[in-house]
Amino acid sequence: MRHMSVISRRVAAAAVSVVLVGGAAAACGPKEGGDAKGGGAEGAPKKGGTLTVLNSAPQKQFDPARLYTSGGGNIPSLVYRTLTTRHRANGAEGTKVVPDLATDTGTPSDDAKTWTYKLKDGLKYEDGSPITSADIKYGVERSFAAELSGGAPYLRDWLIGGDSYQGPYKEKKGLDSIETPDEKTIVFKLKKSEGDFPYFATSTQFAPVPKAKDTGAKYAEHPVSSGPYKVIKNAGDGEQMTLERNPNWSEDTDKERHAYPDRIEVRSGLSAAVINQRLSTGSGPDAAAVTTDTNLGPAELAQVTGDKNLAARVGTGHFGQTSYLAFNPAVKPFDDPKVRQAISYAINRTSVVNAAGGSSLAEPTTTFLPRQKPLGYTPYDHFPAGDKGDPAKAKELLKEAGHENGLEITLTHSTAQNRETSPEIATAVQAALKEAGITVKLEGLEDNDYDEKIHSFDKQPGLFIAHWGADWPSGGPFLAPIFDGRQIVKDGANFNTARLDDPKVNDEIDAINKITDHDAAAQRWGALDKRIGEQALTVPLFNPVYKRIFGKDVKNVVISNWTGVLDVSQVAVK
């Protein structure tokens, strides 16, 4: 999907919220099914009480059309139900897509170009009125309006007529490619095969919106809830939100969300240090508090690890994301595969992991796809250099490339203190390459300037630090935006920085997209990742690990590999 510098933060904020912003080397990657660790206060979860959410980033976009979330988001999925949703379970089990408003995950036909859904019986909004297929159609159509931009852009590419549709405010007729033959049936007609459609149908663009109650750009302030909670207050551009129980939500129609707390208070705009201190201390309301976007740092983690009571309140999660070095072969000397291979051999992943916070917070990887089976992870290491790099092999390749006296290059990075694309990582790369005779000049840019430069086709640097995260647990939204030649964008945000336009790669992407068996598709994505990796178009560095503390009265902690973070829909505080 879109680049992690933009998206992972949304996905982490909304799902982790990541878009908007996790695999590893075989010896140290997470074990499937056992890599998410939660816990919580003793005793069975009960209904009642108030849950407090302490976050750094405010939930600025809360309109379902404007949200860019993975699996429907975290806080958003308390208010918005969608056709499908993520399974609320720990680890790998939580990467499955399951029905939500629909009776199943969708019926494909015409090589997965047509998807049909039937709605469950008894679905109601917060005011007791019924949810219909027309409301879902209208909700999708709203996401095309320029006034409500910001959501995931797939439907513009996928739906017939989506590339020119301007939304229901300008085009009253709506999209012919979304059919509603009756109040409980909705059919989507696509331009191309998309076997992953059930996964994308978890996004909030598929939340129902009753046309008569649509207030346009103000809808986020008082949206009509289809989920277990309704919005009582949304102030300060999402900085303060209050949610209360929706009396017309029924657990009989919703097997995924529990809705234990009576009330949820979201407070954002806080520093990471303040959040972690309040959660650790756990006094007053903070005893029943969590965070959905703030990690423990290395120093905090060391302190927590030394206290068994605090350590028992740390959840560990893995989200499908990779931090890597990106090459632009249009810039010399990166047009030479031997130079790219030399840099691949020179990288010291031990020092990079240390710069990212240590082995508890980052896991080294040599594959572009993260180490998760649903993504298609297939082990490979085309340029084996051990944990600390192989500068001798790198020098040998540089000599073959005509650079026997070394090389001078520039590495662009962000100045954001995120331990993913930041100065610490850049400095570690610089030191490793120096051992191989490569002198690296560092170009640090403020976040906005960094995003603009690395996404601009004309301005893209020859070498920069990037990261990419999965919009859903599949290899498709991981590989296609980066390596599909038809997604090279010259007049907008370009993510295929390698300029790879290989017909065989493009054809394989199309072939896999026709597969509706997710396990079968995953094997093909993994094989494609391994094949592309031989060209040294990127240097995979590490996959992040989320370590987040929660309040001492929090029960029923569930952390899936879809989001990598605590799922607020499962939490109880009594």
Automatic annotation (TrEMBL):
Stretch list, region Disordered: 30-49
Domain of life: Bacteria
Signal peptide: 1-26
UniProt-listed SUPFAM superfamilies: Periplasmic binding protein-like II
Keyword check for Transmembrane: no
Keyword presence, Methyltransferase: no
InterPro entries attached to this UniProt entry: Peptide/Ni-bd (IPR030678), SBP_5 (IPR039424), SBP_5_dom (IPR000914)
The protein, known as: ABC transporter substrate-binding protein
